Amino acid sequence: MSESLKLQKEQQQRDLETRYESSYHQSSLSSVSRQSYAAYVGGHGHKISGKKEKKLSALSKKEKRSYLAVDTDDEVIGYVVPVFRSSHLATQDLMETQEEVKEEGVGYVVMRNLFSRETDFKMKTVKKTRETSMRESAERLTLSKKMHEKAEFQKKMNPDSLTHPPEFIVKPRGQTVWEGKSLTLHCTVAGWPKPRVAWYKNNVLIDAKAHPEKYFTESQYNMHSLEIKNCNFSDTAEYRISALNVKGESSAFASVIIKRFKEGEEVIERPYGYSPEYGVTFNTAIIDKFDVSFGREGDTLSLGCTVIVYPTVKRYQPEIVWYRNGVVLSPSKWVHMHWSGERATLTLVHLNKEDEGLYTLRVNTKSGFDTHSAYVFVRDADVEEEGVPVAPLDVRCHDANKDYVVVTWKQPAVEGSSSIIGYFIDRLEVGTHHWTQCNDTPVKYARFPVTGLIEGRSYTFRVRALNNAGVSRPSRASDTVVAMDPSDRARLRAGPSAPWTGMIKFTEEDPTVGVVPGPPTDLAVTEATKSYVVLSWKPPIQRGHEGVIYYVEKCLVGTDSWQRVNTGMPVKSPRFALFDLAEGKSYSFRVRSCNSAGVAEPSEETGAITVGDRLDLPSVPGPVVPIRDTDTSVVVRWGASKEVKNLVGYYIEVSINGSGVWVPCNNKPVKGTRFVCHGLNTEDKCVFRVKAVNAAGYSGSTAESEACIVQASIAVPSPPTGVTLLERVRDYMVLGWQAPANTGGADIRGYYLDYRTVKDGVTSKWHELNLQAVTGTSYKVTDLKENKFYQFQVRAFNQAGISEASIPTVALECKEWTIAVPGPPRGLRVQEVRKDSMVLLWEQPTFNGRSPVTGYYVDYKEENGKWRCFQERSTKHTYMQLSGLQEGVSYRLRVHAKNLAGVGQPSTPTDAILAETRPGTNEIVVDVDDDGVISLIFECSDLKEDSQFVWSKNYEAFTDTSRLTIQTAGDKSRAIFNDPSLDDLGIYSCVVTNTDGVSASYTLTEEGLKRLLDISRDHQFPIIPFKSEMAIELQEKGRVRFWAEVAKFTSNCQVEYVFNDNIVHEGKKYTMNFNKTTGIIEMFMDSLEVTDEGTFTFNLVDGKATGRTSLVLIGEEFAELQKKSEFERAEWVRRQGPHFVEYLSFEVTSECDVHLKCKVGNIKPATEIAWFKDGIEIEEDDEDAKKIEKSDEVLTFDIGKLVIKSEKAQRKKKPETEESPSKPKISKKDAGVYEVKLKDERGKDKTLLNLTDAGYQAVLNEVFRVIANSSTELKIMSTEHGIILYSFVVHYIEDLRVGWVHKESKISHSDRVQCGVTGEQLWLKINEPTEKDKGKYAIDIFDGQGSVKRVLDLSGQVWEEAFEEFKRLKAAAIAERNRARVVGGLPDVVAIQEGKSLNLTGNVWGDPVPEVSWMKNEKPLLCDEHYSLKFEHGKFASITISAVTTTDSGKYALLVKNKYGTEAGVFTVSVYMPDDEAAAEK
């Protein structure tokens, strides 16, 4: 009896451990599991010996698992039940907390514990002492405190229970240390879910595990550190930490500098980014970059860049990754990605506002990465009704459960003509096509709980906004969400629980059927608005294995009456939304759980909850400050909203100052307080305002910002270049330099010079030369010491600041020049750059040599060419126009000066100048106004705020201002000649300061001056210009109209009407009119008679200006006009009754439908309309009468689609094509003469169309033309049989002539090369293609007159890709047909009694016949007396185990293999003993 009690206690102890062992890992995460376990142990007085937290470890392959329980003397005292027989408690713990399920799936936990059990574990029953109980109690309190601290930490890190992108609270700081020391970089990152971090050195990932002697990384409580041990000089680099979670990516940088104690020590290291795998360092260049882009909802937008990775390594391709707002993009129905090997393309299909954001292309190589980013703006599509709001955006689903989901969205930027009243939420069950509205009353919050879902079904949601004008278009549908328990969803994500069977069975030793569930716990109000209240709770711990439903009850505060809310709709999820509560009233809530055994006790009450909005509108953001950025963008900054919860973002609006029309700059809210508004018009004066938005709605808009002109911002200039020595004497030197290539958008105000001495290669510190800025590009440095060496550098400055220093000169010795030739010219500058010319200007050299300078030579060279002299003879001018240049080529220029002694040294060359005419380039225009004043006009579209027009003659400043008067207004400047004469001949140029080289010139020659003086004289004594000379036209009733149009006149202009030199006046025969508003002169005559033959003239007098226009009507011209007049009168009479406006004609539509149509006019309901064919009237009951229609006075006879011999045609069809539905047909029987007649009491009319012979052929030709022009370009499709070239047409008829050509030779039909038609597809199939099939293919389609040809070059890369795809498909088809496989015959699980024999046979197939082998527990199984292995007929593999024992239990596999593949048939053998089975049943 005592032995029996001992065994019973030990069995209870083993049951206790097996219940909690499989869920122990979860208990480390769940306080509920830990407390329940502690309570159970404390109540029963049990204790588990050994380690309190058993460490999980995998069993070695040699060890065999034992399920026997032993005592202290290693004597067997019982059998331990495997964990999968008592794991329902583990499953219950997994269902309690969603966080636990997210960490590990049920199958993973059970299987890991099953395979990690130690082989030699022992169990004891120990009597607890008081000291032990107190220690365990203290440990439980400590553990509870730690769990509480962890929950508080997670709550602090994620207070709003929403996901947040990574954010660096504390960024790493740069450090400088001595060589040999160690340093540590620290930072703190916030975000939810917890971000993962990675450290980089010069954009190369640091693998701390691979180099533990060098690096050590640590991450704890969102604090991250990188320790660099024993720093050396090669550790000097820029370090970056990148944090990433599902919401995005963020990075922070820190520079590390390692100093040396000794100088000159040589460091041998490989370059940064060196790839040992390929033996090179990859460099990346991104060109042809995409710029800021604008799209509209519904459009398709493509972004692309050309990526160059060098050096080129065969079969190596970089990784191309696209981001939107820092979040990695994946291919989807809305996002298409393509990488051609050279160009990366991202295509956004059917744009939505969700697609707006900052797009980044990241190119990852083995040596690092390179990126390019640009913003994409998506404008709203046009609204269907004026004043309605635009569609909401970013619809998402959260907290999905069995019958409940929370839908959130973002408010649109444009509310319409009135504020948004609320939102309607629609749902669509996947597999249906009907959207169902979820709420009858619009909700104000951008967050709504949707209830009433059906468990196990999938849904998508969309949102519509409502204002006083109507309802907006729906938003883009959300991602699909499944209504199911979160634990089930996590279990599905975790995959199968047991890999060897695909499932795992949970058996129960303590059935809980018939147990009434306990009350729910942790009831709380998670959301409360004036529209609804959301409750959440935890399921009861005691609930059995059947489903639990919940009933929610409410009670008005101050009463004791509890009312059940969801009587008709039980809740399956631990969340519920209550609607229709009285706003301002206080309620208390509680929940009951229920199953088939009964209803549980209610949960604890929530306490008084007042119905009302808990989330307030955000406060108005701070002041808005606009800052100039570029010619089309402005940077806008503002202060963050101080009082705001759950901020969604900000919307920025722009308006042209004074217009009152506000337009959104962004259609997707931005989180920061800085935004670049693109797409603005240059020179517009804009004001901005900002409003914040959260789930509660919009804040008020900020006050208007100050007006900002859209112009490029100014910056410091680039450094001067070409610092050269112009002259030197014993105690001074003259230096010259070139102005900065980039002025920074503002005028250069001057230059500062620095110098330092050089002695024996050692340089001193830099010292300032001039305290007052130098305005020119040369400077005389005085007070120098003879025979000493100096270095100089120059800095430029403008309104924005001082530039970087120029490149220092070489060491220059201060001593007097003794050379005879002149020094180099200075101050070279280039203007008027065009595609084939440019103008070079320079200044005289400072040092002339022994005689004055007599001329100059100009040299030029291409970027990598040799220097060549531009002219044969020297020029005395200090300017030269270089013409005959090649467009798109860059040139460098330099100048030599010469005197009587010879040619001096060249000047410093200019920078490379590209010969091109930039877009928007204007030239100087010559103008002569109405008063005869001659002037030159130059207009600049890139004018800046402080830009000026500078005019010069012969590239020198004006000395005689009496010759020209300069007038400038806005972006236009005018140089007016006061008294034009030969003294004004020359080159006139105009330069606009503070621009990117905007300039032009005009050469006034003697011939040009003469022409201008003639034009001026004509303007002083003007002739009235006619926009249209006198013309004649016939009007209704044959009325004749003579008219002319005057181009320019005043209100005093008078007209004299003359016929054959006789002045005529208005009367019965003539009607005159002069419309001084339009300038049209008219004279009307009701009819033309024989006496009206002659000349008609209009004479005009307008002050000193005169004008004359005439028209001669005599002979045949007069007779023809008179005949037309009589005809028009007869036509007018015809049109008084029913008549044809357009006569009967045929039309072939783009779908190849043939219509006969005519247009009628002046008809009544009583007008008879009759159609005839070949003289026979088409009656109403005829079949053809159904094809006749009348709409908008247009009569149409729809003959139908042209199909010739369609009933007899034997067309080749492809399996995937389907016949289009039958359509009306036309054939030879439809040829004939068609006629339409109109008749009523006012008159009659008729029209006729002959569709026989030539007419019918004309219809066919038009059909052929439509079909031929509808053909698509040839495309390629590879199959396992060959290559197919095809083109689609809108329709096909049998008589259409189609021919295929290969290398200019017609292709004949054969077994290998076939051509045909399937539906509307014209195709050419090349079976088993070879190299001979390469070349240019073309399809000729007859178009009625000629032919339409579509050409495809099937060679090069196109051939390679198509041929490789054919070979791949062919090989894949062969491999799939012939690979080795286990066809069947083997079960998943075999349970067999000990002592019996087991025989299993598997069916095997493969060509060639596969090799067969057997495995047990992943080890080869050999044939012996116990195992009999056979393989018969190449198809049947069998295994026989004689007299099985428990050691035969395990995982078996039948492994088949041939050259096409390998496959394993896996099954499990479980051997049980009869006594154990009987005991289990008892």
Kindly describe this structure:
By secondary structure, this protein is mainly beta. It is built from 13 helices and 104 strands. The strands form 26 sheets. Strands 49, 50, 51, 53, 54 and 55 form a 6-stranded antiparallel β-sheet that branches. It has a 5-stranded mixed β-sheet with strand order 4-11-10-6-7, with no helix packed on it. A 5-stranded mixed β-sheet has the order 15-22-21-17-18, with no helix packed on it. Strand 31 (521-528) and strand 32 (532-538) form a beta hairpin. Helix 3 (31-44) runs antiparallel to helix 7. The chain starts with a helix and ends with a helix. The model is unreliable at 16-123, 263-269, 496-512 and 1203-1224 (pLDDT under 50).
The N- to C-terminal Cα distance equals 20 Å
**Structural class of the helix and strand makeup?**
mainly beta
Helix content: 10-25%
Total beta strand runs? 104
Q: How large is the radius of gyration?
A: 46 Å
Poorly predicted spans: 16-123, 263-269, 496-512, 1203-1224
The biggest sheet amounts to: 6 strands, antiparallel
**Which outline best applies?**
globular
- Determine the mean pLDDT: 82
Strand % is: 35-45%
